[in-house]
Amino acid sequence: MTFMEPRSRRSITSDTGFNSTDTFVVLYSLEICTRYEISVQGSTGAGPGPYGPQMSLDTSKPDAPWGLTATNYDRTQVTLKWKEPLVTTREGLKYTVKYSGKKNYNKTFASSGSRCADKSKTYTVKDLVPGTLYTFQVYGTSDCGNSSLISYNVETKIAGKRFWI
């Protein structure tokens, strides 16, 4: 069901329409990933006028996750945590973690990948290369498409030097 709000009065609409003397209405409680077809028809004491041009309203894809941080990182793995977006689908989002690594001293080096984190908001990326600067990106996926990316940079640790005497 879709709700329309002319000023302060709340009504449930049907497929047949909504009557109001106001010059605007506010549509809310719309489903995301949905296209709505909207048209307006004026009416006077002489009767209804023609419908105005039909307009399409596409509700948005999900917002991006936020608050991405890296915890518990060492030489070969990084644990990422993020928060669910404020606007999402009823069934929730599935998340994808993408990463790419580089070494400043070796321009030909590249380490990259993509992992599905399913519906979890924490994911540990393993088998990373020590001493590499990684850019991690997380985005949500729903039937509507993909959200925007959020990014976080982490440099994996290198083994400490050991001196034997």
Walkthrough of the structure:
A hairpin with a 5-residue loop joins strand 1 (3-5) and strand 2. This protein folds into two domains: 3-58, Immunoglobulin-like (Sandwich); 66-155, Sandwich (Immunoglobulin-like). It contains no helices and 15 strands. It is rod-shaped, with a radius of gyration of 25 Å. The strands form five sheets. Strands 10, 11, 13, 14 and 15 form a five-stranded antiparallel beta sheet that branches. The chain has a three-stranded antiparallel beta sheet with strand order 2-1-3, with no helix packed on it. The protein has a three-stranded antiparallel beta sheet with strand order 8-9-12, with no helix packed on it. The model is unreliable at 1-14 (pLDDT under 50). It is mainly β and 165 residues long. The termini are far apart.
